[in-house]
Specification:
The structure is a single chain. The chain is mainly α. It folds into two domains: 34-139, no CATH class; 147-444, no CATH class. Helices cover 66% and strands 3% of the residues. The chain has helices at 4-17, 34-49, 54-67, 108-122, 128-139, 147-164, 169-191, 196-218, 222-233, 238-249, 253-283, 302-318, 326-345, 350-371, 377-384, 390-401, 405-436, and strands spanning 74-77, 81-86, 95-100. The longest helix is centred in the C-terminal third of the chain and has 32 residues, at 405-436. The chain is elongated.
C-alpha cells in the first residue's frame, strides 16, 4: 500500500493520460566491501592524528568512499573519533564502523602524502589493494628529518625568538639550553605516564627558572624577558589554534570546542609553570619586574627579519613538514614580521595588525598549497609562529606576581586576543581563496560545504 502522496500522484497521471506510471522497482542490492571501510577509516585516522582539520578529514574520507563505490556513505568526524556508515540497497542492513583517535602527533609530511593518495584514488589512478599498500608505507614511513634535528629545532625556535625580541648571544644560548632541558624533562615525564599538562608546566618552569638565574647571577633583568619569550614560543599551540578556528568557521562546532579547550589547557599549563617559577623568583628577591619589558619590540632591521624567518623554519622542522616547504616557511615568517612591523608603525593596534598580517599569510599560503595540490596547514602554521604572543604571556605573569593583578589579567587577555586574531586571520585568508577557486579533494566545490548555507544562528 503506497502513501497518500503516491496514490495522489498515480491518480493524477491516470486523469491526465489514462495510464498509471510504472511502479518503482526495488533498489538493487549493493555489496559493502569491508576493505573500503577499513581504508576510509584508516586514512581519516592518520589525517586527524597528524594534525589535519576536521573538514579536510571529512572531505578526504568521503572522496575515498565515492572513489571505491561505498554505497550511500555517511561520515562523522569529531576530535577524538571517526565513524563510517554504508547503507546497501534492497533492504540490506547498514554497515557501520568506528575508530578512536588516542594519540595525535604533528606530522605534516604525512598530510601531504595522504592528500596525494586521496587525490589519485579520486581520479581512478589507484586500485584498492594499491591504496592499502600506499597507506601502509605512509603510516610506517619516516619523517624527512632525523629525530635529533627535530629535538634541536625546538631549542632553535627559542633561540631565534629570543633574538627576535632583542636578545643577544648569551640570551640565545640560554634560551636554547633551557628549552632543550625542558623538552627532555617533559619527555621523561611522558615515558612515566604523567599527563601532558604537567609536562608543559615543567618545561615552561625550566625556561623561566633559567631566566631568573641569569638575572640573579648577571644582574641584567632585560635578558629575562627575551629568554622566557623564546622558551614560551617553542611551547605555544600554533597548530591546534589554527585548526580550532578553522573547525568553528566551517561549522564543526564539537571539534572546534574540543580543540579550543585543548588550546586553553596548553596555555594554562604554560601559565602555571611560568607563574610558579616567577613567584619563587620574586619571593627570593630576584630583580624581575615589567619595567624592562619593551612595549614596541618590533624592528625592521635585518637581524629581526632573519630571526623571524629562522623561527618559522625551525617551527616547520618540528612539525615535520616536507622539505620543499622550508623555503616558503622562511619567506612567510619574514613576510609576516615585516607586514606586522609596518602596521604597528602606522599606529595600527597590535591585535588588528596580527590579524591583517595573518590574513595575508593565509591568502598566499592557501594559494601556494592549491597550486601544489597540497594541504594548506604546512604552509600557514609555521609562517605565523613569529607573532605568537610569548612576550604578553610573560608580562602578564610578572604583573600578577608583582602586585599588579589587574594589569596582569589584561595582559593575559591581550595574549589570547592576539592568538585568536592569528587563527582567525589565517582562516579568513583561506576563505578568500576558497571563494574564488574550485576547492576540495575531489572537486567538491564551494557548494559542497553544508555549513556555508545561511542559517541565521538556528
Amino acid at each position: 500500500m503506497g502513501t497518500a502522496a503516491e496514490r495522489l500522484r498515480r491518480s493524477w497521471y491516470v486523469l491526465m493520460d489514462g495510464t498509471p506510471p510504472e511502479p518503482p522497482e526495488d533498489e538493487p542490492g549493493e555489496v559493502v566491501d569491508p576493505r573500503v571501510i577499513d581504508l576510509v577509516l584508516r586514512v581519516g585516522e592518520l589525517l586527524l592524528a597528524s594534525g589535519e582539520s576536521t573538514e579536510r578529514v571529512n572531505e578526504a574520507m568521503l572522496s575515498l568512499a565515492v572513489a571505491y563505490e561505498l554505497p550511500r556513505c555517511e561520515v562523522q568526524v569529531t576530535f577524538t573519533s571517526l565513524l563510517v556508515s554504508a547503507h546497501p540497497g534492497n533492504g540490506a542492513a547498514p554497515v557501520t564502523a568506528t575508530r578512536a583517535i588516542r594519540r595525535r602527533t604533528p606530522a605534516f609530511w604525512r598530510l601531504h602524502a595522504l592528500h596525494a593518495l586521496v587525490q589519485q584514488a579520486a581520479i581512478g589512478m589507484l586500485e584498492l589493494p594499491e591504496a592499502h599498500q600506499r597507506l601502509a608505507e605512509i603510516k610506517h614511513g619516516r619523517a624527512p628529518y632525523p629525530p635529533w634535528l627535530m629535538v634541536v629545532s625546538l631549542g632553535l625556535i627559542a633561540a631565534s625568538a629570543s633574538v627576535l625580541v632583542g636578545g643577544g648571544p648569551v640570551v640565545a644560548v640560554t634560551a636554547f639550553v633551557a628549552t632543550l632541558l625542558g623538552d627532555r624533562a617533559a619527555a621523561y615525564l611522558a615515558r612515566r605516564g604523567v599527563a601532558e599538562f604537567f609536562q608543559l608546566s615543567l618545561a615552561a618552569a625550566i625556561g623561566a627558572t633559567a631566566a631568573a638565574l641569569v638575572v640573579a647571577t648577571m644582574g641584567s633583568p632585560g635578558r629575562a624577558s627575551t629568554i622566557v619569550t623564546g622558551a614560551i614560543l617553542a611551547l605555544l599551540p600554533g597548530r591546534p589554534l589554527v585548526a580550532s578556528v578553522q573547525d568553528g568557521v566551517t561549522g564543526d562546532l564539537v571539534s572546534a570546542g574540543a580543540r579550543l579547550l585543548e588550546v586553553f589547557f596548553i596555555i594554562a599549563a604554560i601559565v602555571a609553570g611560568l607563574g610558579a617559577a616567577v613567584y619563587v623568583a620574586v619571593a627570593l628577591n630576584v630583580d624581575i619586574n615589567v619595567s624592562h619589558l619593551p612595549d614596541f619590540p618590533a624592528l625592521l632591521s635585518p637581524v629581526p627579519v632573519l630571526a623571524a624567518a629562522a623561527v618559522s623554519v625551525t617551527f616547520a622542522i618540528c612539525l615535520a613538514v616536507p622539505r620543499d616547504v622550508l623555503v616558503p616557511a622562511a619567506i612567510g615568517g619574514a613576510l609576516i614580521w615585516v607586514v606586522y612591523v609596518l602596521l604597528l608603525t602606522a599606529s595600527v593596534a597590535p591585535v588588528l595588525a596580527s590579524a591583517i598580517s595573518a590574513v595575508i599569510i593565509g591568502v598566499l599560503g592557501n594559494m601556494l598549497a592549491r597550486r601544489r595540490n597540497a594541504p594548506s596547514l604546512p604552509y600557514v602554521v609555521p609562517a605565523i609562529s613569529p607573532l605568537l604572543p610569548g612576550t604578553l604571556l610573560y608580562r602578564g605573569m610578572v604583573e600578577l606576581n608583582t602586585g599588579a593583578a589587574q594589569e596582569g589579567a589584561l595582559s593575559l587577555v591581550a595574549a589570547m586576543s592576539v592568538a585568536l586574531a592569528l587563527g582567525a586571520g589565517v582562516n579568513l585568508g583561506g576563505e578568500l581563496v576558497r571563494a574564488f577557486q574550485t576547492v576540495g579533494l575531489s572537486a567538491s566545490g564551494r557548494w559542497a560545504r553544508p555549513a556555508a548555507r545561511r542559517t541565521r544562528g538556528y
